[in-house]
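Ticket reopened. Same input as before:
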Amino acid sequence: MSETLVSVQDMKVHFPIKRGVFFDKTVGYVYAVDGVDLEIKRGETYGLVGESGCGKSTLGRAMLRLNEPTAGKMVFDGHDFSTLKGEELRKMRRRIQMVFQDPLSSLDPRQSVESILVEGLRAHDLDEGKESTSKRLRELLSAVGLPTTALRKYPHEFSGGQRQRIGIARALALNPDLIVADEPVSALDVSVQAQVVNLLEELQEQFGLTYLVIAHDLAVVKHISDRVGVMYLGGLVEEATSEDLYAEPLHPYTRALLSAIPVPDPVVEDRRERILLAGDLPSPANPPNGCRFHTRCPWRQQTRCDTERPALRELKPGHKVACHWAEQIQSGEIQPHEVKPILIEEDDGISPDVPLVGPASVTEALNP
Amino acid sequence: MTVILNEGDSAGTSGAASGSPVDAAPEPDKAMTRGRLVLIRFVRNRLALVGLSVIVVLYLMAFVGPLLSPWSYDQQDYTAFLQPPYADHVFGTDKIGTDMFALVMRGLQKSLIIGLLVALISTLVAAVVGATAGYFLGAADRALMWIVDLLLVLPSFLIIAILSPLFRGESWWLLVFMLAAFQWMITARIVRGMTLTLKEREFVKAAKFMGQPARTIIAKHIVPNMASLLIIDATINVGSAVLAETGLSYFGFGVQQPDVSLGTLIGTAAESATTFPWLFLFPAGFLVVFVLAVNWVGDGLRDALDPTSTRVRKREKKDTEEKAA
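Engineering reply: fixed in the latest deploy. New output:
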């Protein structure tokens, strides 16, 4: 049994932008995920963070083949998951399960909890007689901290946190090796978030699970992950252990991201330096050349940044970063400078984004 | 999509919120399931209840009535020709002395059975075809939707009329299938559209992920989630199937002699409608009452299963306005 459970190699997901009256002509691509390599070790929790639209969910879905990747492959426990078909794929899917973001929409409103949980067992012939199944169901419910009376109820009768627990129980029902959690707590209340995160950790210990947690909440990721990958515009920009990353971010984007976390100490909060990024996230349909981040980077240099795409390189053991100037930035040789936001124009008309017309808010409309 | 979501979400609370005495005190040991809620909403709609009881009474009459009547539809009373209703013949008799009550009941039987079967078959076909096309998309979708479009363009009445000589003398089953074959298309398109949205819901993805084959996902997740649409559609279809059957039979293309349906009865009695009104009024009256009742039930079901539809909202608005006044 090798140490690596999942290995993603040069994963790319490009969505075509189609246009045309009579024929669907592909006029461009949205580069949602553009060349990502990552490895997840057995029994660890890998956190994937990034702002919305950076491709983290798409990456997760592509790994699970909910969308087909354009290129690249995912090797799961020695098998190439991305080439499996039909029955083999169905069998393999038992070992990778998913916890969804919206706990209500991920549960069929017409199914009782019992039938939600039994469904997976039936599909994989793990349903061996009434006795053992009901025992298994009770085990599952107690593992996620729900009473056995929940079996006869329907999803709408539960609170958000409880629904997410049902979602987790459903994922657990098939005894998976890997659980991909796409924003597992972002739809929940903060106090409930903590419960669910702790539950995930307990279950990991109990069943020896491996997690891939996709989130935009840095605090959640810090709490739950062993290793963290930071994504920006379809690419991985930094990867390190959780402590390393939060103590010493190397990539300018990670620094900016982490400086956005408020510190619960008014004195420190007032004085600490915050890196505010100028401009917007460039369109993934038309990503900048060279380093994807150079249009907004306060440490941007004259050379290399806008011409050469930096590869993910290991700067310190276990700490990878995709920046040409990471060492110099870390040593203070390069100081940040002001960045003028670049207007992202729809020059070639292939941006999928609809331009917003009119004032952005009520305040703006009232006080022009 | 949001409709279903809201329904599920509000199922436990909406009753209390609207302040209705029916919902306010549900038995504490009985959980408020969706079915119970729909039932309560349906029962509250008086017109729908009336419709439902009319339908039940009509079915009972059609099937039990002939057993109680001393006359049968193929038996003539040679002492009474063209008699208006009187004690012996409650609906009167026609020109060869057949008891009109027996005839109308026989016709009603045929029409109701045909209506029910056509509605069931066409809704079933619509659900299967629509869900399959919407779920698989691609070539299957294009092929099925092409058939749907083709059938929609063809004038169904003419086609059945042209084909009717072929099944002259065959059993009325053929007519059922012909009628069903031309009634499912519009529903199939709606079902396809709903499947497209349901397919994107996460529980469908989760089921796919659990390794459920496509047919199980369609049968267990997609079709049940549009049950409200299908039930309503089936109900309304009963009415339109009966109308279509009567229409065809009136022109002599549907049910063939010596068998009778409401359509053939209306057809033969049409020329004497003003002179011997009981020949015409009884079958026509039953037809109107039945179709009306079916539509009331359909409306009631729609309001019960889909409370966000406009009618209820209007009514609620009126209620609040009255309270405010």
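Residues 33 and 140 of chain B are 37 Å apart (CA to CA). Residues 41-324 of chain B form a domain with the MetI-like fold fold (CATH 1.10.3720.10). Please confirm and we'll close it.
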